[in-house]
Amino acid sequence: MRRLVLGLPTLAGVIIVSFILTRLLPGDPAVYFAGAAPTAEAIAELRKTLLLDHSLWDQFAAYLVQLARGDLGRSLVTGQPVVKDLSLRFPATLELTGTALALALLVAVPLGVAGALRKGRAIDHICRIVSTMALSMPAFFTGLLLVFVFYYLLGLAPAPLGRVDPMAFPLAERTGFILLDAILAWDWSSFRDGLAHLVLPASALALAGIGPLTRVTRGAMLAVLTSDFIRAARSYDMSRWRLVYVYALRNAMLPVLTTGGFVFSFLISANVVVEKVFSWPGIGSYALEALVASDYAAVQGFVLAVATLYVLVNIAIDILYGIVDVRVRLAG
Asked: Nearest CA to 196 among 141, 169, 156?
């Protein structure tokens, strides 16, 4: 609860900054949405409807009143309330980002541990090369490369046209997560289809997170393996598996968790371009379309939703700190 209260000033700052920055965007939304051959009267009417003829203070006050009612405004691009647009698209983004983070952790943590256990050997050099390559490759380039190789050249992946095959029968949505909805409906063909469409974009995002996670895991494990309590544990003839994965890895997990939070935040940002590459109907592609059209309500709603997600992720990481390390829980 303390963390939630401390997150409120952060959200307040995000509201102010996002409002100011959207007004600094080039272009006039009234001109954009007035049509191909707009008249001065049509533009003036739109500006009046969007409150653009008012001062910034009046616009901001009206925006705060909307937020107090739980209303993020109406998108000019889709014509629907921004809350509805985000609620429809958020599960797609969370499914993609969560899968990418899980893949990154499954690869980075074992690779970092192996590099620390065999410092200076071949596996350690491979660990550093993989992390450097993953850090140096932008997510959009990785996505385009994966599409070119696995869809165009090898024909192993489906066309990058969304979450499922466009010709497939629509799956009844319960949670908005394709894989989970398919499991709940016992529809294994839809599950395989959703998984096939998820693999490439999740892999493109995961590669962007493997680099920092691998480096931090390797560095934390090297520090823990040289600590006094590990030397004492070795003197008791403890099994290597228990020594490494129960004692050493658990004590090395705090910096990995911190980095995982940063990586998750970065992946949400990288989603904007990856979703565009794979025609993924998430909030990233939604925000990009809104940004091009100077759709103020949609952009502000996206920024506020992502900022709220960041605050919740940080709270979750704080809770995991206490679970992983009892000293943090006792200190709190």
From this structure: 156
What is the spatial distance between Cα 159 and Cα 146, in angstroms, rounded to a whole number? 11
| Tokens describing residue 16 | 């102010």
Other C-beta atoms closer than 10 Å to the C-beta of 76 total 19
Q: Mention every residue, 6+ apart, whose C-beta is less than 8 A from residue 9.
A: none
Place of tokens 């090297």: 222
Which residue in 20, 49, 56 sits closest to 300, CA to CA?
Answer: 20
Read off the pLDDT of residues 157-200 as tens digits, 9 standing for 90 and up.
Answer: 898 888 888 887 777 778 888 899 889 888 888 899 999 999 99
Residue located via tokens 């969304």: 162
Q: What is the pLDDT of residue 36?
A: 64
Q: DSSP for 22-86, please give it.
A: HHTSSS-HHHHHT-SS--HHHHHHHHHHTTTTS-HHHHHHHHHHHHHTT---B-TTTSSBHHHHH
Cα dihedral sign for 282, 285, 290, 291? positive
Q: Which two tokens stand for residue 192?
A: 């395989």
Q: Which two tokens stand for residue 220?
A: 């934390």
Dihedral of alpha carbons 218, 224, 225, 227, sign = positive
> Nearest-CA neighbor of 89 among 290, 316, 315, 330?
290
For the CA atoms of 25, 312, 163, 143, what is the dihedral angle to 10 degrees? 70
Task: Summarize pLDDT for 57-106 with one digit per residue, the tens.
Answer: 888 888 899 888 888 888 888 888 999 999 989 999 999 999 999 999 99
Cα 104–chain centre separation: 13
**Distance (Å, whole) CA 178 – CA 165:** 12
